[in-house]
Design brief:
The structure is a homodimer of 191-residue chains. The first copy, chain A, is mainly β and 191 residues long. Chain A contains three helices and twelve strands. Strand 12 of chain A pairs antiparallel with strand 12 (173-183) of chain B, so a sheet runs across the interface.
Chain lengths: 191, 191
């Protein structure tokens, strides 16, 4: 272990992380705004909560506070280019659905929708938020999970032999999983 | 998009995620307790904050509240077995460092230490915590980043051609990255 890179922010040490494309209804445009996020984590199982970290400067932050709800769309590695294009635009300037010809599936429990390309998407209602430094952690309760067939096994585990999830590495780079590296060292252990 | 799996918790949709082994000083044993966590996210860059979600029932939760600090060790895919062994034991019952012959590096800004096998490890001081459902989000400020040489490129991005990070899939299963899938669709875009 070297002392090189021992400054506080020398590295994007917390990547790779799955990309979740946040979708929020944009009533002024009668559309849905989409923006990629990777600072996301499950927060609880009962009730099922997750947190998405967003800058207060973003249009997505503004829309979530206005609607109190959002969706998350998880895409495969082959959609890296689409995610980059969605991330490059700001919803303040353009309707991304129109500009990028995005195909949107209507959500069931929220006003917005999710990306048709998603292998899994969830609908969330905003239940709380916390300021953390220069960001806001939006806490959502999962109301619906939409999954393509055969994406998860019967135990709910992603079938990486079928799906190569898109993972963000930092610096505009993405990577995917190698399903030949699937291991289960001990059936009973769960970190 | 099928309606199959549309229940609220039908799938571990938020995996794969990097495994962070949380290390906290255990003064009663003059040791460091280690436990794998995957419900973790960056929360801010200024100051550099991250959040780790833990059950109040865990020994790690107890130790972090007592010491006000923790480390995170990130391991390569080849250490999946070690992580599973660490996760299988409880620090309430045993000193895992002794039981598993763990090699520990002494931290610089906190009392505890991190795993010698880590390709990157960070030291954090606890700055706040939030109850989220049945869990606690421990918010740490990053005080030090220790990285092996040549693990990150000059932009701070993980070199997946050299390091295969350990990713948790749920259900006791792990996977790794495929570096041949590294892509950069647009140099300027960052989700």
């Amino acid at each position: 272990m070297s002392s090189a890179g021992s400054e506080r922010e020398a590295a994007y040490f917390y990547y790779p992380r799955p990309v979740a494309v946040v979708g929020v209804v944009d009533p002024a445009r009668s559309s849905v705004n989409f923006a990629p996020a990777t600072w996301m984590t499950p927060l609880a199982t009962d009730p099922p909560l997750l947190g998405v970290c967003l800058s207060p400067a973003t249009y997505t932050h503004h829309l979530i506070l206005a609607s109190g709800e959002f969706t998350l769309s998880f895409l495969e590695h082959r959609h890296a280019g689409l995610v980059a294009r969605i991330g490059r635009l700001s919803g303040r300037d353009v309707d991304k659905v129109a500009a990028l010809s995005l195909e949107v599936r209507r959500a069931e429990t929220v006003e917005g929708g999710f990306l048709a390309e998603a292998y899994v998407a969830v609908e969330c209602s905003l239940v709380s938020r916390h300021q953390t430094g220069d960001q806001t952690l939006m806490v959502g309760e999962v109301q619906r999970v939409h999954a393509e067939e055969d994406v998860f096994d019967r135990g709910g585990v992603l079938r990486v032999d079928r799906i190569c999830p898109l993972l963000y590495l930092g610096g505009g780079r993405f990577v995917g999983t190698d399903h030949s590296l699937l291991v289960q060292p001990d059936p009973g252990s769960t970190p």
